[in-house]
Amino acid sequence: MPLKTILTTQLRLRYPIIAAPLGRGSTPAFLGALAREGAFGFVALGHIPEAELRQTLSAYIASAGGADRFGVNLVLIKDQTRRLETALDAGCRVVSLLRGDPVPYVRRAKDAGAAVFWTVSGPAEAERAADNGVDFIVAQGREAGGHLTGEAPLMTLLPAVVDAARGVPVVAAGGIADGRGLAAVLALGACGAWMGTRFVATEESGSHPGYKQMIVASGVSDLVETSLFDGGWPNSLHRVIANSTFERWKAAGCPPNGSRPGEGERIGSFPEGAPMLRYNVSAPWETMDGDWEAGALYAGTSVALITEIEPVGQLLARTSAEAEAALRLNIDYVL
Hints:
Largest sheet: 8 strands, parallel, barrel
Helix content: 25-40%
Number of helices: 12
Number of domains: 2
CATH class of the largest domain: Alpha Beta
Strand order of the largest sheet: 1-2-3-4-5-6-8-9
Radius of gyration: 19 Å
């Protein structure tokens, strides 16, 4: 039988699975595929010019079948008030917040009738999120790819966050790529799983095909924690697949910002035509020209479990079936 949790009930989902924002990889087609299959995804708004945001969101709304069938993500390293207002005015009613001070954004989103997700680093921040009326708390374990927030591995962090959340539903993130991971976090008190790296390697994601293949080919030993890719998001630790940019910097003795090899070097162009420079924060997207491999190849430890690029629908069905089987096996074992 389908896995039913407060997450599936409140967001009207078939699966208790959320796709993390994948930068430019979270295209309208990708989020539309998730919505049609009964899951949910977020699009990061930070890279979308404010003047183009309403028009861009209209494409997501059309593809997903409604403004409430996907979520918008705001990283609060700068003022995101206008982006939030534009998204709410467009009808978006699910908002995800990360870093900075989410409290004013929580209040504004809640006033508009939106459901709010707040990604927390640990129990203390979870208590603050609960006190401010969020609908879901996202506990990001240290196994995650991309920009790291969690202060401990998920096995330890998740139960502590669930306790601190005082009844607010918690979604687990970091290192989850299959049904065994989903079953494990449900057993630890989560209402669902938030997966990023696994969804990069899907047929529908808008990530670069070579990036997808590197996710499949990589293991945990190929990953590094670094703050190297800081163009547009300084001083933020992230986990990536070690690539030519990282190896070149390491061979140079790991020099500081301003003295790194190839700084100011163009490795590609953004869709609007602006140059993408080496060390930029952006992950390579499907149509990126130039040296895509030199960009930030975000990936979590779940690469150890990813062996193929598969369709979103197949991934969701398989993950759910695996989770149900794992939960039944554990119950039978205990009994």
